[in-house]
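Bit of a strange request maybe. I'm writing a small parser for structure token strings and I need a real example to test against, not something I typed by hand. Could someone generate the tokens for this chain?
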Amino acid sequence: RAARRMTVANVLLVSLSLLSSTSAFVSPCVSLGRVSRVIMTAGMGNRPTNEKLSIPDMNGNNKKLNDDNKKLPDAKMEAVGAELSVAKLEAVDVNKIGAESETQDGLELEPRAFLASLMSSRTAQADKTMLLESARQLRAKGDAVYTAFLERLLQEVDGVAENSWAMTRWPIPLPSYRVKLGCLNRMVTELLKEGMDENVRREGVRARTLAVLLRQLETSQGVRKLETEAGKAKLEVSMADMLKRTPDGLETPKYQVAAEKGTWEVREYEEFSVCSFDMKASPEKAGFGAFNALAGYIFGKNQEQLKMAMTTPVINHGSSQKMSFIMPSNYWKTQSGASPPTPMADSGVNLESSGGGMIASSNQVAVMWFGGFASKDLVQRRKDSLRAMLESDDTWQAANAADEALLLQYNDPFVPPWKRRNEVALAVTRRVSAAAVAAP
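Reply from user aminoacidic:
Good idea to test on real output. This should exercise your parser:
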């Protein structure tokens, strides 16, 4: 490893010396690109060939390094990685690459080629979409097949964990397959530190974390850009930013903002109904089981077999261990005449008004928003912070001192933390001033 660092340092010094002698008319971008390619070549792989390391001069000729012991590593995967498209994936000889592959509709899903294409900024989005769809269709063969493919992808990503070259976040983009794997490795580790959504805490959580990131690569301009985007989104965001994170096309409860307080606000909600699942009554279905039961009811597992539109947010009632889905708005007011479908007798699903208790004591609700995965520790800190804000506020107070703040989650469990909208909410009322109490 020390020898490799010396190699990179030596190459950089030689490259800079060549740049210093170039004409002032040579594009600095071209020169910098040559330096980055030389450094990339020096840092990849561990299998030397008989070719000595050389770098191009400004006339296109190669110059040997003074140290004859430095060898050019095998660049096979870097050559495969940056330019692969779906068409090329179909022709990949997996025996040469040396890894097992999955086949879906004639497309070879070889882990290294699959990752290289998704991580590249040059792969067309349509090609990335096709790749991810092929990976999703592996589930038709069973969860075991899909999970095994994710695990092979994870082995490839974790294979660079001890590679200091790959795990360094370089100040300029490098066309190196291993450096891109290092970006993915850092993001997987960071997401696990933040804590995955409670609804997906199952076996293989590290592989499923990788699956979250792969979905984002579909629309991202490469893995480096995705890592940069994730870092910027950790900063404090406004409510306007949070509204942009609300999923398009999903109905939410209607409200008006009564007071803006910087990092929190007070809303006046209209009446809305929910379907709920009591996890105390069915502890074996806590977490993901409760989510599935409610989703099943919405998507037609009810006595009328009626499918309804999905809504947001999901409400978690904390210590009461109840989870609620918002019902479509045509079921919010009983006078509208629309009757919601009847839950199956053994489903554990119940229908409730007043937001399942969220606006039972008051339709005025204090709300504090935050991003990231809603881990238990983070949620509790936000609940404590909201209550502290209310205790020091001159206008608003908790409607019931014994009430616990609720958790509202607007995104599906596989949305990454930097795109998530979460809120803690507590019913409030206006404080009564001393002058008003003293008045006759």
